[in-house]
Amino acid sequence: MGIITIEDLPARLAGGKTLAGLDLGDKTIGVAVSDQRFSFAHPRPVIMRRKFSLDAVALLALLQKENAGAVVIGLPINMDGSEGPRAQKSRAFVRNMAQVSDLPFVLWDERLSTVAAERTLIEMDFSRRKRAGKIDSAAAAFILQGVLDRLQSLHASGRTEPDPPTAA
């Protein structure tokens, strides 16, 4: 499907779907998944990057298991608002994923998400070694939480209305 706007997300998240968040690193893909009420982002184990085809299979299996209806991917925009090589890599990743999946992607400005995630892990007294294994998923959770908060804000303002899941 490719890239959609945040305003288009609610239509893709009906029927008990969740929303996934990704933080792309050179060595890992940080993953987080929302609850079905779209209130909280929950980090998941990172996916170790090897080559795109293997990464895509692992990611799609996780997204299917988590019943994801859409994916938010952090777009690493420079502090001056420009897009550099890392942003281009994220856009290329989405283009490649669109070839193997119908899941829609939302690009989300991720400036300082890794910094915020690292500060939180330090506050939680994680050692440097333990932080290294959790930082990308923590950053994915920060990215996803930003989108979830924005969806709640849009819902409150009446501009979009995600369908809350029904109890099964």
Automatic annotation (TrEMBL):
Q: Which domain of life is it from?
A: Bacteria
- The record places domain YqgF/RNase H-like at 17-117
Under the heading SMART domains, the entry gives: YqgFc
A molecular function GO annotation: hydrolase activity, acting on ester bonds
> Per the record, a Pfam family?
RuvX
What EC identifiers does the entry list? 3.1.-.-
Q: Which GO terms describe its cellular component?
A: cytosol
Query: Which GO biological process categories is it annotated with?
Result: rRNA 5'-end processing
**UniProt KW keywords:** Cytoplasm, Hydrolase, Nuclease, Ribosome biogenesis
Cell compartments where the protein resides: Cytoplasm
Cited function:
Could be a nuclease involved in processing of the 5'-end of pre-16S rRNA.
Record's family? Belongs to the YqgF HJR family.
PANTHER family reported for this sequence: POLYNUCLEOTIDYL TRANSFERASE, RIBONUCLEASE H-LIKE SUPERFAMILY PROTEIN
Q: Which NCBIfam families does this UniProt record tie to the protein?
A: RNAse_H_YqgF
Name of the featured protein: Putative pre-16S rRNA nuclease
What is the native source organism of this protein? Mesorhizobium sangaii
